[in-house]
Each structure stands twice: as C-alpha cells, then as structure tokens.
Amino acid sequence: MPLISYTAAQQIIALIATCQADFVWQGWQGALLTIAFVVFAILFNMFAINKMPLIEGLVVTIHLFGFFAFVVIFWVLGPREPASRVFTEFQGMEAHRPERLGKLRVATLVAVVGPSAALIGADAAVHLAEELKDASYILPRAMVSSALMNYATAFIMIISFVSAIDPALLDDVLATSTGQPWVAVIRHVTRSQAATIALAVVMCFQFTFTSINQATTSSRQLWAFARDKGVPFHRFLSKVSERDGVPHNGMINIAFHWLSTNSRDSGLRDSWLNSDLLDGNIRSAERSRIRDVR
Fold first, then answer.
1. Most CB atoms closer than 10 Å: which of 119, 159, 238, 239?
2. What is the pLDDT of residues 105-144, one digit of tens each?
3. Residue 159 belongs to some domain of the structure
C-alpha cells in the first residue's frame, strides 16, 4: 500500500512539474502526498464503501479507454524503432564488450524488480471472498479473466512504449524534471502539454483507486485473522461497524502500520530524510540541545 501511494504521489508531482516548468521537487512533498493518499484510501473505505461498485465500474472503464489512448498515441504519433534495436541494443552498457556483460546481467536483474510489481496483487480479491455470493464460482473466474486481460494489455503497452523512445532523446528522458521518464516520452511523442497533462491525470486517477483497493483487501485480511483470534488485540480488531459492515478498527490499525513500519518500502523515509524540513528541524533541535548543555 505505501508503495502504491508513493507511486501515486510521484505521478502528482510529475503532473505539477508538467504544468509548471520551474517546479523543483522536494523530498517532503512526496512524503506528505504519500500520507495524503494513505489517509484518503482509509477514509474512503470507512465512509464511502457503499460507492465502491460504482467507482470500480468507472475505474475499469477509464482503464480500458486509457489503454487505447496510450497505444494509439504511441502507434500513430511516436517514432517506430526497429525491433533489432529495441530488443538487442543496450545503450550505455557497451554489452558487446565481454567485461561489460556481467554488469549488463546485474542491471537487468535489478531493473526487472520494478515492472514485476505490476504482476502482483492478483490475490487481493481472495480476501473479499466472504463478501461474495457464490464465491467458489465467481472469484476464480474473475481472477483469471482479469489476469489474462491485464497481462495481455501490459505486454502490448510495454512493446509500444519502448518502440516509441527515440534513442537520441534517451538522456533527456532519463533526466526529465518531472521525475517520471514516461511523462517525458509522452511529451516528446505528442509535442503537446495538454495531451501530456490529460494522460498524467489518467495515471493519477488509476493509482488513487489502486490505493483504495489495497486498503480494502488489507483490512479484510486483518479482520479475518482477528476473527479467528490469530493476531493480538483480536477482540478490538474484529469489531465491525453496524452501519456499513466495515472493520473500522482494522482500517485505523493498518493506516498506522503502513505509515510507520512500511515507510521504507514506499520511499517515505528517504523522502523525509532528504527534505529540507527535516534537516531544519534537526538543526533546531541540535541548537536547543547545545543551549541546554551550556
């Protein structure tokens, strides 16, 4: 959850940087936006859960239309690099040199961690099985169909994306002030700030409701363990609101858990440590301590 919230925060920052060219990203901004996404996801699940079916239908619709919007832009407006260059050339690694081959392999293994995150989360629906009618029939089919659809569209998207990257602009893409190379690629392909902003908004919307979905599944899993007395304070965590049937205590618990113990996964801790705000607080505390010693 913190990882998705931090990723959503990065998209917001990229959107701001696209709208305002002189914007400079500070670490504390990403931290506060991450907290905001976590809090929003928790509050939505606690007070607007009845709107979830409507929202989910809207999200799926935007997901499909967004996919076609990106692919059409890449295919129609983007450059078409030959497959031999896309799949065999590795810029900056000098892979043709034997002494560089080992570094290329290590770089490949490290880089695959990011994209692989898109393949996880398929088990999220399992935690809602008790709230489904005829779960043994609906749940497996929903999981398999969604996996097939998303894996197929993801494959098409990644091939379209890497084929639309102009090698001459690769350094500019990686050094983009938005912090998100995909935004720079869209800007180069469309040559339109308005189109780039529109597509960035789509990504922000999708990541926002991904955070909400993760909050939903996490709270249900915690509630199930608490109901079976499998966690400490199970009586407190297993309580369910009579108004909407939502485990509010579990929601609050996972919110504190995400913002404390899992901050390292989302980059939240690094954001704070790199921020001028924290640096100023540390310096102020240090000056106060020195005065007390004197």
1. 238
2. 777 777 777 666 666 666 777 777 877 888 888 888 888 8
3. yes
